[in-house]
Design goal:
The protein has 2 helices and no strands. With 120 residues, it is mainly α. It has one domain. Helix 1 runs antiparallel to helix 2. The longest helix has 67 residues. The model has no long low-confidence stretch (mean pLDDT 87).
């Protein structure tokens, strides 16, 4: 006895819905994984940036006092350090759009593409 055509369609419908729900779950897990990897990279970058900032901050204070002792004026020593940072700031402002933002976007896209290649 052969099954009815309705049974085939019923079985096919169940298989398709199971397949689609499995694909949706897989997609969700892939999104969760990418989100977790990007969050971990951002967090570790943030911690490194904060530690670098603290190191730079205390070194700047030490340089300010050192130059202050050289010039016999603490204010002048800190002014020299501020001038150095101002000289670094000006090119950063002009290169911000062209170089720095492009570099960050390229690195992020590279990281996402690298994760996709690892999955394959």
């Amino acid at each position: 006895m052969e099954p009815e055509p309705d049974d085939y369609f019923q079985d096919l419908r169940l298989l398709v819905t199971d397949y689609l729900s499995a694909r949706i779950r897989l997609f969700k897990y892939e999104v969760y994984e990418k989100t977790a990897k990007i969050s971990a990279a951002l967090f570790s970058s943030f911690v490194i940036a904060m530690l670098a900032f603290l190191l730079l901050f205390f070194l700047s204070i030490a340089l300010g006092f050192y130059f202050g002792s050289l010039f016999n004026s603490i204010g002048t020593g800190f002014l020299v350090v501020a001038g150095f940072y101002f000289i670094l700031l000006v090119p950063f402002i002009f290169l911000r759009k062209n170089r720095i933002e492009k570099l960050i976007v390229d690195r992020l896209i590279e990281k996402l593409a690298e994760e996709e290649e690892d999955e394959k």
